[in-house]
Write a structure and sequence with these properties.
With 397 residues, this protein is of the alpha/beta class. It contains 13 helices and 15 strands. The strands form 3 sheets. The chain has an 8-stranded mixed sheet with strand order 3-4-2-5-1-6-7-8, with helices on both faces. The two termini are 46 Å apart. Bound molecules: adenosine-5'-triphosphate and magnesium ion (MG).
């Protein structure tokens, strides 16, 4: 199964491009699902399903659009009922003790990340069932999609380090603590719910870090502010072990627009287009022109797909397989090499925690699990070399 993840700043065209990609994949014969992970769904809208009211729920499960194309908008209320019952019941009960009414408490019990986790469970399930050949993920603007990709490692860390401890301690102290604690402590069913959820996403991190399965496509516009966010996203995805295999610059002014009003826009776009090519090389950069209309309905999505994939190119083809980071053995030390094209020396923090190397860049942090042979080593030196962060690791003296 291939997973194609579309991410980028708000409003750049992620949903349109993800949908057009889905259309193209289905046309090529792949069993395709386009899944929206953005709580502010607009996937169904871009197929122009208008007959169904503003807040329909037909897409809360995969809905067939044509031949081999399904779309799915993850509906968090529905997911809570399906998968999060014990967790949500407990959190709701705690929030109610703080004075919220039932409906407010239920609203508050939807916490950040639930949508993303639910989407991951589906991706994992579809892979286990071999239900689709291609899953196109239409993500929320960058910040949330970063949460999406960091979720499995964070959760994995929690499950290994905190979960057994918490569950064990609570089992022991619950009978007494519940008498004195102002809020009821989570029952064991809360923990078994967490474990069940965890089992449902287990393995997804390997899937996302495998460039033969998952490719990230960053959507941007030829505007400075948007490009800067795209660069940060590139670093972050690389840090999380995902492979960005394409940058799509959307809404490029076509040559046919000669109106003087757009002169400055055209010039600044040209400058930025060259910069974008240089920044992201060797990742390929694809341009999509500004259309004279919104991209609404199947016909226009097909038109967009035609431009994105000329000559019926295959969006699911694996084009880049170089891993964002790798471990290398040198004669008397080991190296961790992380692709980090935009980072600067002063911004990078490194330390060791248990058997993990922790890399910090600005507000981002990643725990990189070290292979057993390197687990006892310490980082001694780091350098930036050819767009790579090279960390030397040695035995503690
Ligand atoms: N190349 C283009 N030419 C003209 N209109 C476009 C183009 N690309 C996208 N649009 C239009 O821009 C609007 C926003 O696009 P879209 O919803 O795909 O962006 P998004 O990145 O998914 O936004 P959000 O961050 O809100 O999810 C839509 O109305 C879409 O039809
Ligand atoms: Mg969108």
């Amino acid at each position: 199964m291939r997973i194609l993840l579309y991410s980028g700043k708000g409003g750049v065209g992620k949903t349109s491009l993800a949908a057009a990609t889905g259309v193209q994949c289905a046309k090529l014969g792949y069993r395709t699902l386009v899944m929206s992970v953005d709580p502010a769904h607009s996937l169904a809208d871009c197929f122009d399903f208008t007959s169904d009211g503003l807040f329909h729920s037909r897409t809360a499960d995969p809905l067939n659009v044509f031949a081999k194309l399904d779309i799915h908008e993850v509906n968090i209320q529905r997911e809570i009922k399906r998968h999060w019952q014990e967790i949500s019941t407990y959190i709701t009960s705690v929030l109610r003790t703080s004075g919220l009414n039932e409906v407010e408490a239920e609203e508050m019990a939807i916490f950040p990340g639930m949508e993303e986790l639910s989407a991951m469970m589906y991706v994992n399930q579809y892979r286990r069932e071999n239900r689709y050949d291609v899953v196109v993920l239409d993500c929320a603007p960058t910040a949330e999609s970063l949460r999406f990709v960091s979720m499995p490692t964070t959760l994995d860390w929690y499950m290994r380090h905190v979960f057994p401890l918490q569950r064990g301690i609570l089992k022991a102290v619950r009978p007494i603590a519940n008498k004195i604690s102002p809020v009821e402590l989570p029952p064991d069913s809360y923990f078994s719910n967490i474990r069940r959820l965890y089992e449902r996403i287990e393995g997804i991190d390997e899937l996302m870090e495998d460039p033969r399965t998952t490719s990230v496509r960053l959507v941007t516009n030829a505007e400075k502010m948007v490009v800067r966010e795209t660069q940060r996203a590139f670093v972050y995805f690389s840090l999380h072990g995902l492979t960005v295999d394409r940058i799509i610059v959307n809404r490029v002014l076509p040559d046919s627009v000669q109106d003087g009003f757009f002169q400055q826009w055209r010039e600044s776009q040209q400058v930025l287009l060259t910069e974008i090519e240089n920044y992201f090389a060797p990742s390929p950069v694809v341009q999509v022109p500004l259309f004279p209309h919104e991209i609404l309905g199947l016909k226009r999505l097909e038109q967009l797909a035609g431009l994105l994939y000329p000559g019926d190119a295959d969006p699911a083809a694996v084009e880049r397989t170089e891993r964002p980071y790798e471990f290398v053995k040198q004669p008397d030390f080991y190296e961790v090499r992380i692709r980090m094209p935009f980072a600067e020396k002063g911004e990078i923090g490194l330390f060791k925690k248990g058997d993990e190397l922790v890399v910090e860049i600005g507000a981002f942090r990643r725990h990189i699990g070290l292979p057993t042979s390197m687990a006892s080593l310490l980082p001694v030196r780091a350098r930036l070399e050819n767009r790579m962060l090279v960390v030397e690791m040695k035995e503690a003296a």
